[in-house]
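Below sits the subject:

***
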Amino acid sequence: MAAAMEEGSIFVPGTQRGLWKLRPDLSFVFFSSHTPCGDASIIPMLEFEEQPCCPISRDWANNSSLEASVNPESPENKRRCDSPDSPVSKKMRLEPGAPIREAANGTAPCGKQESSSFPPGVSSSNRTAERSATVTGMDHRGAKVVDVYRTGAKCVPGEAGDSGQPGAAYHQVGLLRVKPGRGDRTCSMSCSDKVARWNVLGCQGALLMHFLEEPIYLSAVVIGKCPYSQEAMQRALLGRCQNVSALPKGFGVQELKIQQSDLLFEQSRYAVQARTTDNPGRLVPCGAAISWSAVPEQPLDVTANGFPQGTTKKRIGSLQARSRISKVELFRSFQKLLSSMAEDKWPDSLRARKLETYQEHKEAAAAYQEAWRTLRKQAFGPWIRNPPDYHQFK
């Protein structure tokens, strides 16, 4: 971000001095090759369904002839159950790494797919699922929910916690959770929680908010081909915050579009597992990460287990061992931007008092902090916050 208007900039001057806003012809779409961890990954498994949320017609449950055709207790299906080519399966596939359990005794053919105005390769729904304690009973189409896909994300302290009961009641839904799925609990909130927060506060963060007249919101979230539930996504990203009110000017709960693509990301866990059916084994996530930004200076950041690729144990803790997208380095870029400007050109929020630490600069974004306090008070009270001294660097 430049302090002055440049050709090709994504920002235009705002109405207030020193503030900018996103060009009206631009929008941001967030793509993930897999359903976000946490609440959005608690996906209902329907009776007679091999994959969750298959587009079954609404009158499926009332269609006696169809129900009979997939009834595993019928004489015909009893004979077919032991056949390797039978469409009737005794087990459902669970998310890789999840415990396998006897979930259903049949696989139903999908009914008529509902029409969609979205482009080929993308499906969507405007339904908003209501928050409930557990995924139980029948889904909105009348199909029986017999189990759920598991998420490894752990409930934050202060939340009700998962029941751990077998079947669909295993998880409590709508709760805040932390990563990772395996190992010790951290202070990092789940991806579902972070995206839900972005939908109220914007994805720009507190520092950039000093220079913006209004938050930057995502216009859509697109998920790749993987186990997916539109209802779970609506609940996790929108439903939990839909009643948040009394937010500062410019902030609000957004009408985020949630869609799924039918295009498979070749390196996703789902795709890799499908290619290795003849050689089953545990899939371990890669510790490497590649971050690329369309900026002229240092656009690429390649890390391994959180450190720049090639970092030795002796160099951990040094300046060279910092990722370019770490909080410290992002703060350095922010400070560099300020130093390139005359102080009388700074936004009013940065000139009210002398600010030194990262935490002080974040807290000085008054409207953003007020919106965050409102969100915590009304929806995300147990959200885990970092220790006070964690952000006291200069």
Notes: Residues 36 and 192 are 5 Å apart (CA to CA).
